[in-house]
Amino acid sequence: MTEGFIKIATITKPFGLKGQVKARTEGETIKKLSLPKEIFLKTNTHLQSYTLRHRFSQKDCFVLTLDRIETIEKAETLRSVEVYLPEKHLPKTAKDEFYFYQLVGLHPKDSGVVLTDYRVVEVMDNPAHPILVIQGKEGEILIPFINRFIGDVDLMEKSIQVLDWEDWFAV
């Protein structure tokens, strides 16, 4: 259903009386988009195309202006709707940058050894920092995605360096 599309936000509620909506974003993709841009809203079980005409940041979210949504009543119907962008339309990343969705499926690496019995299954959004959810034979491990605990990310090798790997089993 959403194969080839990346979730970039979730609409939380209407903003004002003219159909704008507030959206909690996944990363900084919305901020980097050139406008206008075709986006897709997941309503029920299908994706519906809209044009993102304008956006501005407000505290911990973005306010979006979409075509065909001109009233608060129409905006109200979009509560909790997920916003998607075709993967091919994501802004290009720099050499050492990546999107969080690209971390899913990577295997942790400890002292140069890729641990194929474990893999990243989710990147949880958290106000302080993202959290990697890694599953493996020992169960689920939650690791903050910060420099103190995470080293190099190698998308070609499909690995992510976890510093002090053995310490995560004592927690």
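^ that was protein a. below is b, sequence first then the tokens
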Amino acid sequence: VYHPFHDIYMMQEEQIWYRYRTGDAEALSEIAEMHYRSLLRYGMKFGLDESEIEDCIQDLFFHLWDRKDKIGPTLSVKNYLLKSLRNRIFDHYRQNPPRNSDEDLAWQTNFSDFHTIEAEWIERESLDMISRQIQLQLDQLPKREKEALYLRYYENLSLPEIADVMGINRQSVANFIQKALRKLRARWAVPALLLSGLLYFLTHFRV
């Protein structure tokens, strides 16, 4: 579905990004204000402490300012920031691995992340029971599938944008999402109620 306001927003964001690249510190502050919550929310999904994620975000914006004359234009500021933060989080993890742990970064998914997807359908149902069921099934998904779902349905990124953020190709993103939805559809006890919300978002988000 085409949204004209999306184009207006992208044009405004492009102008702010240009101002930042030409040395406008206020423009970088505007970018930080616009995207900080999304960055923090996304970063927290990797299982690190909030203070560690805040440090990664701060380092990211320091880096942006230091290299403002070397950074080019971007089609999506949000996509650029999410990808950059993801790289910094993985660098931080490699440099500061947790003690007695050989595992990779975990992907933390809470039911509240996806609450908006099915809110319209579950307002009249037992929220506690359904939320526990969804949380259980989300926890059983591989972390890459959970991350792809989060970026698609919560951050509203397109498939190419998700591929860019995660460092994989578009077909892999599509496969992750399709596999996750197939698993959820097979496991949910009330698929007609909950999957209808996901299908609604599938038809309303950009491809």
